[in-house]
Each structure stands twice: as structure tokens, then as C-alpha cells.
User: Which sequence fits this backbone?
């Protein structure tokens, strides 16, 4: 994670803000964090790494992400489907 500090902060303060951000945002990967001290307050800005996801679609009556587990008959059904285009 890249941490940008605009102003003056100790390494201990930076470490505390980083660990707090990670505990609040469990399950997300913080790519970059900017800290701007302003008197008694600190402005914090997060930039998250893109989340990975798997596309799921309904094919021949099944919700699937990929066709790698289909047998030959199901693959033939997929090939025979009428694909509609969007105008």
C-alpha cells in the first residue's frame, strides 16, 4: 500500500491510521491512502484496488460462470442457442 502524507506526521501516527483503515475496510484491498493533517483533525482519502468478480449467467437452465464443467451435450446446447443482439 502506498501512503502519501501531506504535512507532518510521525511514523507511529501513520501506522495507527493505516491499521485503523485496514480494520474498518475488511475484505477490501487499499491500494493508496492519503493523509492530510489539519490541526486536531486528519483528512483521510482511500483508493481501493479493483475487486475481482466472476460473471454468472443463466445458460440452459443453470447458473454458471464458465462452461468448463459442462459435458458434451450441454456444450452442444450452448452452441445451438439463439444469441440475440441489442439494437
Assistant:
Amino acid at each position: 500500500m502506498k501512503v502519501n502524507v501531506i504535512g507532518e506526521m510521525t511514523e507511529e501516527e501513520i501506522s495507527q491510521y493505516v491499521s485503523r483503515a485496514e480494520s474498518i475496510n475488511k475484505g477490501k484491498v487499499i491500494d493508496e491512502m492519503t493523509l492530510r493533517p489539519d490541526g486536531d483533525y486528519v483528512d483521510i482519502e482511500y483508493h481501493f484496488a479493483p475487486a475481482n468478480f466472476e460473471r454468472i449467467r443463466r445458460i440452459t437452465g443453470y447458473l454458471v460462470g464458465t462452461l468448463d464443467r459442462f459435458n458434451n451435450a450441454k456444450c452442444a446446447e450452448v452452441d445451438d442457442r439463439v444469441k440475440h443482439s441489442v439494437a
Remarks:
- Helices lie at 11-24, 72-80.
- The longest helix spans residues 11-24.
- The radius of gyration is 24 Å.
